[in-house]
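Notebook, bench 3.
Goal today: get a predicted structure for Thioredoxin domain-containing protein from Solirubrum puertoriconensis so we can plan the truncation constructs. The sequence was checked against the plasmid map this morning, with no discrepancies at the termini. Length recorded as 368 residues. Pasting the sequence as submitted so the record is complete.
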Amino acid sequence: MILKNYLILVGAALISLPGLSQSKAPKPNFTLQGNLAGAVAGTKVYLLDDENNHTLGSTTVDAQGHFQLQGLVAEPAVYYLKVDKHPRRVAIALEPGSRLQLKAEAANLRQTARVAGSKDAAVLQRFNDLDEDYYIKVQGIINRRKAAGDEIQRAAINKEWELARKQMYAAMKSIARQQSYVSPFVAVQLMSSPDHLPFIDSIATIYQRRYSQSRYTIELVTYLASQKATAVGAMAPEIMLPALDGKTTALSSLRGKYVVVDFWASWCTPCRRENPDMLKLYNSYKAKGLEIYGVAMDDKQDKWQEAVKQDGITWTQVFDDNKAANPAKNTYGIRALPSTLLLDPQGRIVAKGLRGEELEKKIAELLP
C-alpha cells in the first residue's frame, strides 16, 4: 500500500489532526530551521506539495530572519519552500526524523539557498545547484542569441546551448544514480524528453527494488508503461474527451485518415506560435486525407475556447482537464508541450515528436 503524505506545519504550536484526541497532539517528526538574510519581520514562508502546488502550511520569520517549521511526514518526499511573493522556489527533501537547516538571502532565494542536515538533503542540494547554474547559463545564451547579428552567430550559440543541455543531462543522470530517495525525483525531471527513455528504463528497475513505494518511482514506472504503449508501430490508445460542442469525441472516429494528435494548451507559448503553421498544414493536406485531433491540456475551458477562436483552429478539438485526471495526458505519457503523434488510417502510430518542417515533410511523403 502506498503511503499518503500527511503534513501539518506550525509556527508556534502543533495543530492536532482531525479525528485525533484534542488533549494530546502528535509530536512532529521533522524540523526545518531557516534563516533568510534581509527578510522583513513577518515575511511568510510556505511549504508546498511538489505535485499540485497545494500549500501544506506556513509560518513567518522574526526580526532576525529566523523561522522554524515542524510537522509530520509519512514517507520520504520532496517539497518546495516558497517565500511570500518570490517567484521561484527551493526544493526541500523531508522524511520522518529530518532535522534540516536552511540559509538564504530573501531577495535572491533560489540562487543562495543552502540546505543541510542529511545525506539526502546534500543530494538534492547538488541537483538544486545544477538546475540553477543551467538556468542562469540559458538566460545568458537566450540574450546573446537575440542580439546575434546573423545566422552564423546564432548557429554557434545554438551549438553552445545544445552542449550545455547535454552536460546538464549527464550531471542529472549522475545524481539519479546516487543511493538516495531523492534520486527517483531527479530521474522524473528527465521524462521531458524521450531521448532519456533507455536510461529511465534501466534505472527504474533499481528504484523498484530500493524505493518501491516512492511516488516518483511509481511515476517513472507509469511513464515507461505509457511510452511502450504509444511506441511507433503500436495502435494508438483510444481517447474520448469532450469537444467544443460538449459532446464526447473519440480519436477512433477519425479512422480512415492520417491523423496528427496534437497535445497543446492555451497557455503554452510555443504551441500558440506553431498553430498558424499547423493551420497551413491542415489546409494543404485536408483534401488528401489529413485530420488533426487537438488535445488541449488547459485548466479552464473558456481559455481553451478563446485560444481556438483567436488562432482560427478548425480541426477537431477536445479538452483534457488539467485540473482533473488528465486521462489522455497520462495514457500517452505527455511531459512537455507541444507534443505530437502521427497515426496511419488504421490508427497505428507511425511517428512521434515531429514538429514544423519535419512534420510537414513526413506528411508530404505519406500524402503526395
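The CA atoms of residues 261 and 293 lie 5 Å apart. The mean pLDDT is 88.
Flagging this for group meeting.
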